[in-house]
Amino acid sequence: EEWQDRGAATGVQREYDANGQPVLKAIKKGVKDFDFGTTLGEGSYSTVLAALDRSTQKQYAIKVLDKRHIIKEKKVKYVNIEKETLNRLTDHPGVVRLYYTFQDERSLYFVLDLCAGGELLSVLKRMTTFDEDCTRFYGAQILDTISYMHSKGVIHRDLKPENVLMDDQQHIKITDFGTAKMLEAHQDASGRTYYDSDAGQLRDRATSFVGTAEYVSPELLTDKNACKASDLWAFGCIIYQLLAGRPPFKAANEYLTFQKIVALEYDFPTGFPETARDLVERLLVLDPHLRLSLENIKAHDFFRGINWGRGLWREKAPRLR
Ligand SMILES: Nc1ncnc2c1ncn2[C@@H]1O[C@H](COP(=O)(O)OP(=O)(O)OP(=O)(O)O)[C@@H](O)[C@H]1O
Ligand SMILES: O=C(O)C[C@H](Cc1nc2cc(Cl)cc(Cl)c2[nH]1)c1ccc(Cl)cc1
Fold this sequence. Notes:
Distance between the termini: 52 Å
Strand content: 15-25%
Shape: globular
Structural class: alpha+beta
Number of strands: 14
Bound molecules: adenosine-5'-triphosphate, the ligand O=C(O)C[C@H](Cc1nc2cc(Cl)cc(Cl)c2[nH]1)c1ccc(Cl)cc1
């Protein structure tokens, strides 16, 4: 196997060599450390199973990918991007946590947070629409997470209700980073790390990746360039969808949907709340430079009363009505 799994060791244990000298050995988890349970879902190249770590009795979701299938479908790049991106996003409650990766002769394994609440899309379908309080609460958690991702130089590029999972506290966790873009890290004069605004993206012009039709930003369709503001366009579509029960741009096929996006052809259902309408109108703006910035969105009237930061993640989720 030319790929040696340099996956992060899960910790070290102390052993003693022949002369009684203490030796620290890296502990690597493997398949045998887990009891696999129900299938939580299937992807095009993956199966996600509930699993119990026998030694800690902790529950996880383990995403299993078939090596041969990955190679045949030319998805090696995406799998490695998902691993590298998740390894960069390790300290925020709104990002699904990657604990370990390992492999055996047949498969690759991602050991992830278990999100027992399923997809936000399924919750929305059960509710038809969210009321303003729920939209404000879940919207704030999603925005706080986008803010963290962008601060780490990660653009998700495929944000949508299917990629927002719920944990057992009804808090959200964003997943599916195989198509994310990682901006180059730079050190400033005082040695602090910052990420290339979007200049570094210029080389990326040839990117072949386009997200999910209903949430694709106009700049990705016109000049094939995703930037941080592209995630904020998708955020605007999600806020609209939570309140309206459907995404703003949806047509019979992808091409017609793209036509609606670049023509900004959408309207609000009667009864759509005014403040939310104002926020969506300032997000669904064709020119990414004129779209509301992250800070402007946090300060928008729709999010009045939200305390951004730790508090947001300790609060009890409003009852989904
Ligand atoms: N951490 C998790 N906890 C609980 N369920 C999960 C978790 N991650 C994924 N799932 C579920 O498993 C299913 C498959 O997810 P996976 O990320 O493997 O593929 P996908 O991204 O949904 O599909 P595709 O690869 O075609 O885009 C999803 O529908 C999701 O609901
Ligand atoms: O060195 C690393 O970064 C760890 C490896 C890299 C890696 N080994 C692979 C083997 C195959 Cl067959 C396919 C892919 Cl995508 C592979 N990616 C790895 C192991 C496990 C997981 Cl889940 C992801 C990447």
